């Protein structure tokens, strides 16, 4: 289903996902490259699994712990032969992005609000249950900004009744390109707070209790 959706979209022209541009060049030639790339002599890769290695490191060669971070390296091109390879590569770059988008359009993607996520934490992260709404808002603002933190489009709130107030409305708009351009982009959706945000919430609570 995911491969068929990608194939359908590519018949209409290039598609964009996060920092990536995906294009069908012929019946058996697909290209994935960075949208902002300007290297005249990029490194060429020819298998989907190469995407896993490319996605590991940022533009300075440092490890990328967050797949949605806006810091992919820019000096490469991925040449693939099948739509299945395209799907596999995209999942290495942005895990579940296309599947999540399909589920969202079907009304099947249910977000988990931050308070729900934190209330499930145990062990050393149990302390995050004590975070205040104001602290939570600040942590989200520092961790999730599209320009410095993560390109995911957020679907959840602090809790069912309290939205996130520190980020611009575009951060929650599935039709908005989180790179700030006007291109149609398949959004990389965030249906639940990630482990990095939970860790940041723990640090915020611990620091406030000192």
What is the succession of H and E elements? Answer: HEEEEHEHHHHEEH
Structural class: alpha/beta
CATH architecture of the largest domain: 2-Layer Sandwich
Which stretches are poorly predicted, pLDDT < 50 over at least 5 residues?
Answer: none
The residue-averaged pLDDT reads: 94
| Helix proportion | 25-40%
Cα distance spanning the termini: 51 Å
Shape: globular
CATH topology of the largest domain: Gyrase A, domain 2
Number of strands: 7
Number of helices: 7
**What can be said about the biggest beta sheet?**
5 strands, mixed
Widest sheet: strand order? Answer: 1-2-3-5-4
Rg is 18 Å
Which CATH first-tier class of the largest domain would you pick?
A: Alpha Beta
What does this structure look like?
It is a single chain. With 210 residues, the chain is an alpha/beta fold. It folds into two domains: 2-105, Gyrase A, domain 2 (2-Layer Sandwich), CATH 3.30.1360.190; 114-208, Alpha-Beta Plaits (2-Layer Sandwich). It is 31% helix and 13% strand. The chain has helices at 2-10, 50-54, 83-93, 97-105, 114-119, 133-144, 195-208, and strands at 15-17, 20-26, 29-34, 43-45, 76-80, 153-154, 189-190. It has a five-stranded mixed β-sheet. Helix 1 (2-10) crosses helix 3 and helix 6 crosses helix 7 (195-208). The chain is globular. The N and C termini lie far apart (51 Å). The mean pLDDT is 94.
